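Lecture 7 notes: from sequence to structure.
We start with the chain below.
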Amino acid sequence: MKAVVSISRILVGVLFIFSGFIKLNDPIGFSYKLQEYFSPDVLNLPVFEPYALLISVFVVVFEVVLGVFLLIGYKSKFTVWSLLLMILFFTFLTFYAAYFEKVKDCGCFGDFLKLEPWESFWKDVVLLVLILILFFGVKYIKPVFTKLPTTILALTGFILSLWFGYHVLMHLPAIDFRAYAIGKNIKEGMTIPDDAPKPVQEYSWKFSVNGEEKVIVTNGSYPSVEGDFLGVETKVIQEGYTPLVVDFSIESEDEDLTAHFLDQENLIVVISYSLEKIEADGAAKLKALQDEARVNNYQIIGLTASGEDTKKYIKETYDLDFEWYLCDEKALKTVVRSNPGIIELDKGTVKQKVHWNDIEDLALPKVEKPKQGIVSNSKEQVHLSFDDETIYNTNYEKNLYRASEYYLNKFKIPDSILLKLIPEDNGDFDIYYQTTGPDHKLSNTDFFYDTSELIFDQVILNRKEDFYLPSLKLASYADGEFAEGFLEKLEIIIKNDISKFCESVKGKHFPKYSSIKQYSEEYNCQ
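Predicted structure tokens for the same chain:
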């Protein structure tokens, strides 16, 4: 028994120290995970969300300290009881997240190692068994040293943990495991390999057949059943490939400029996920940064999820005149654990990254002036970042070209561009379909079919409401060799919620032979 307790003691102690240190290296990141747990969709404990960072620091420091206490044998009964209560709580949490499919990653090892929900649960079960061995064999846990050195080591472990937590909060994580670490290339992180596995979905179709409910499972095709359709449910059986960088974009109100800015050299990006919550002391340093960057020929822009009114207020309050662009809040929180934070990009590669406390440490040696391209917030002015030789006749052509650049570079196409890919009229649709023609640069690709399927799947699989009406509009162009695929997707959308379809098309006019008109008549939509 004594040997088993000794082995369990070493395994548990080392794992708690390692797991705690990984999270202590990035307490802000762990606080975001706690906010996810506290959200209404998971534990429904929003009262704790404002205190997530405080709870985060307490939990990870306590985790490291317990690991140290266990290894050196300090206050063994208190340590083992604390370990048992903590692992019981974590085991419940991971089981709840896995069973109800609430959280995809427990955050146990931060960004260092992502575990599937059930992997997290079984890891905690193994730890629970080891800690139970310690609990029943606590008499075998003796101090490694005499009382004074043991006490000094315990106190030192506690103080060092607190200091390290404070240090990374006031600066940045000592080790950056994220896709935006110094030396990482954001463009490469957005790339999806050719042979990347695609998600596997399961469709459960419900019918009423002779008064009895019947469920037929397919991989997406509509089953041939004589009965009344009741509904369809989709489930992801196997996740597809997820690129390292998701939801990152640099957008104005009118257009997506991600590819443009990720192709620029010597670009300073000020990151503030929320300008409403920006640290005043940090914002006050941005004016000097702006002036120094421009004197040394750097471009400088801002990225935020805040609205126009707040942007204007911040610019006026702190005397800033660089442009603030839009990006997803969650993505910005991932880029840098500081509000504001600053990164330097060189053709998408992160060269420098600093906390606002360390803006003075940002090295900005003088560089050559960048070549000026056309970047405009005006719909009338054409953005020529991809190809300075090309003039687009319509905004639709311009957007299609942007979408094709993402597609050819195997980047995830942003929703804003995907929505604009849906034709407004037959002229736009002709431009879209011409990408399949032999003389088009996309002729050797499945751009038309892949992007149209992606648009429909935003509704069918991802339940995105802003794609619902646009997807119906796209389906209304069903004709020719692609019609079968369009109509199959349209049937799935309609039959998933017939009343919603009828409500959506009410009062709208469609061509006589439009598929939308035919289906609205078939389902007696008034």
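Points to note: Confidence is low (pLDDT under 50) at residues 372-391. The longest strand covers residues 228-238.
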